[in-house]
Fold this protein.
Amino acid sequence: MPASRPELSLVPRPRTLSPRPGRLTLGKGTSVRALPGAEAAAGLLRTLLGPTTGLPLPPSSEGRVVLALDPQLGGLGDEGYGLTIGPETLLLRAARPDGLLRGVQTIRQLLPPDALSGGASDRSWELPCVEISDVPRYRWRGTMLDVARHFQPVSCLRRYVDLMALHKLNVLHLHLTDDQGWRMPVDALPRLTSVGGHRAQSLSDGVPHAGAYTKAELRDLVRHARERGVTVVPEIEMPGHVRAALAAYPALGNRPGRQLDVWTRWGVCDTVFGVHEEVFDFCRTVLQEVMDVFPSPYIHLGGDECPTGEWEDSPAARDRAAAAGLSGPGGLHGWFMGRVGSFLVEQGRRPVGWAETGGELPPEFTVMTWRDPALAAARRGHQVVAAHHRATYLDYAQSTDPDEPPGQRGALVPLHAVHAGDPVPRGAGPEEASRVLGTQAQLWTEYVRTPEQIEYLAYPRLCALADRAWSGGRSDWPGFVERLRDHTARLDALGVRYRPLTTRSLATASAGTARPPR
Ligand code: ACM
């Protein structure tokens, strides 16, 4: 978009946008007409714009701002929408309610940035006249936030969702349990949070760390996200990354009588779940309560970084492997994931796992290919969310700038790497391509303690991820950078503590960042 029209620099970029002459003025007298099925989107428009613009936007059958479900736009899928802004009227249409929610965010971006910032005065607001027809290329446009390593208050999660929704990201994957902390309350197993939610210190800092959500908080987060068209996908790690659960319930482990602490170090911990029936009872109990809080069709079961040494050393695990017809204890990982995954499938949910080269998950798992080529996973028959660490890990540093603040891991994922690849890997045929649901960024928090650090790491890289996931195809990097420069005015208005755009952060080639795999 020409720099003279910064309001048209949208992130993500709509599929088609045609500027029209003129502007539409919204004032105190502007009312909103929501046709049947469009009430929730009209409510969101009011909720988002009212406090920051001072516009009451009351409902009225005469409104000049019209929101409507229109089956004729069925070709735009669940999330596509059409937006026509003329000098007298605004018409937002979509086949499905989620399409209207996406269109509401486009309207927000088209307003002047100070319409996002609050402190509204008694003034009117102008929208540019445009015709937009928009549809996402991918249906999974996600971001994973690790609240297990460093617990974050619900206020942080709500704001995270708000900023995701502004960028039309639609999946918040919450990493709720790990070796260093268990944050999901389970009524039947209270020690998971009362014991597993506390660790004595982190990396010898001598400072205890603790936190757990209440179910009411999580349900409220799910509702808040749903109103913005965001699905919250919970992750309960197994059979590795379970040290916090083992500290709470030692009988779930491989060595009877052993008492472990909630882990105070980072990395891959060699303590894992045992494979006796009590462990599967535990998993079912936990997952029943998880499903009760999270209506998401997808439930993430982890499955990454599971050392098998404890199983090899355990006569009970070796017997179990033999009884299951496995060639050895190494096969227990896939067997374990298959058993728990089948339970989810019986409950009408879809299991998700982290894909690693060499560690096979059962085919019914949707996989996040953090350390496995997406093409290989698609060829094995999985549904795939492209999540390769070299393109999507937001805890990796954004630049080689010596002034980069602490809290970033040594490897690099510059902005350009996030924008570079298409989620569908090169070489994919039509069937493999059809298995790629989309892509997702991950923000692990071993070294990240505060909401401020989280925002710095997430933005502007989530802008890049949102742009790629929405548009697909080849990356138009120069066009993205131009739009992003304008878009930072919106981030500023919202007080987002993003990494400033600098020559280094916008560099297209840095050491170790050749075109990333997906
Ligand atoms: C992972 O980074 N362990 C999925």
DSSP finds 17 helices and 20 strands in the chain.
